Amino acid sequence: MEMEYPVDFRCPISMEMMRDPVTICTGVTYERKNIEKWFSTYKKNICPATMQPIHSFDITPNHTLKRLIDSWLKEHVHHQPPPLTAPSIKHHDLVSLLSTIGSSPFKVTSLKKLRSIVEMGDDTKADFIQSGGVEVVVQIVIQILFESSDFVTFRACEEALGVLHQLPILSSDDQQEKTFEILSKQESMTSMAIVIQRGSAEARLYAITIFKKLANTDYDWTFITQDQGIGFFKSLLELLSDEICTNASSCALEVLIQVLSSSKKSRLKAIEAGAVCVLIELLPDASSRSKCEKILHLLKLLCESAEGRLALVEHHMGIPAISKTLLHVSNTATKMGIKIMWLICNFHPTERVVEEMLVYGSVKKLLALLHMDSRSSTKDRVVKMLKLHANSWSKYPCFPFDWKEYLGLVDLSC
User: What sequence ranges are listed for the domain U-box (predicted)?
Assistant: First the structure.
């Protein structure tokens, strides 16, 4: 008999139990594969449940709901064996290709056929994984570690990534966990990092897409950042700046957030690779609120080091770009911007920086933020910045007299 699952555990699109729940900008949670198909295949720009217009296609893993679902499943169905995936209608073709592809002199052609089968749907993807396809194709990918100068080998590697980037690797499903284990091995990661640096535009998109999926897991990036060094960060920044392929740019942004959030050493390498300069120049043209917030988050991480703060204040657009986001994009962006300004004011308060904050409107916005009614850490930082540098700013006639009084800069007894 079919088990009755809690309503909140069901995807609003398929009404089936969610195994990889993700939340979109409207706050509604869906099964990842269903909402991705809704956006990419059906080209819809509305929320299926609320019918609200979608202004951002970013999706966020709902880890809390996933833990609740996993806990419920363990309690209610722990005695039932996991169902095996039935062979797809292309099972024979899959097995035939996988058994001969390793020795075939025409690997690229075979991989293209394999890719056309895998992209047919979830059934063929599951069949590919269950038939050992991941292990076979990854062996082709890592061949570039031994024959990196051979064009045919490199081309086969690129085509192999065209197969692998379509696979899900985030679910708690045993088959998908196995896919994660294979793709996250050092040889696989090194090969993909090489493709990101040297591959064609299409192959780089395949590799960075896989990296983005890994970024949503608990993968430890220490090995790859140490092994590939500054070149790895330069290639990520190059993808981030790609104005043609927005998918590659979005994936690179997600990967950078995960890498830099987990390691201060990685931040120093990113700064040396020119990350602060790239992020500042991308900030004014950020195409969405979400992208702006993520860029500010990265700049905040980089400004936690002296090298990052120096790079920001030395860039002619540094202070103006941050100032422009205050009270302009979102509350989250304003909070991030204030954190960056506080790091600069507190640790790098040169006379030029303090003057630029006044000239480019930062001080005016700091004063506006004092009108916030509720007490908050953001407002506390604003007050501290004003008290720290108000003596310098109060010398200018544009600094309001009433705020001089508020900050104790005038003698009322005179």
Answer: 4-79
- Give the contacts of 354 (CB within 8 A, at least 6 positions apart): 345, 389, 392, 393
Q: Sheet harboring 21-23: ordered strands across?
A: 29-31, 21-23, 60-61
pTM for the model stands at 0.73
* Helices vs. strands in the chain: H and E counts, helices first: 23, 3
Domains of the chain (ranges, CATH numbers) = 1-75 (3.30.40.10), 95-271 (1.25.10.10)
What is the pLDDT at residue 304?
94
Highest mean pLDDT among 143-157, 298-312, 397-411: 298-312
Q: Can you read off the two tokens belonging to residue 320? A: 């103006």
| Percent of the chain's residues with pLDDT above 90 | 43
Residue 330 dihedral angles phi and psi, to the nearest 5°: -165, 170
CA 281 to chain centre: 19
DSSP 29: E
Q: Is 42 helix (H, G, I), strand (E, B) or coil?
A: coil
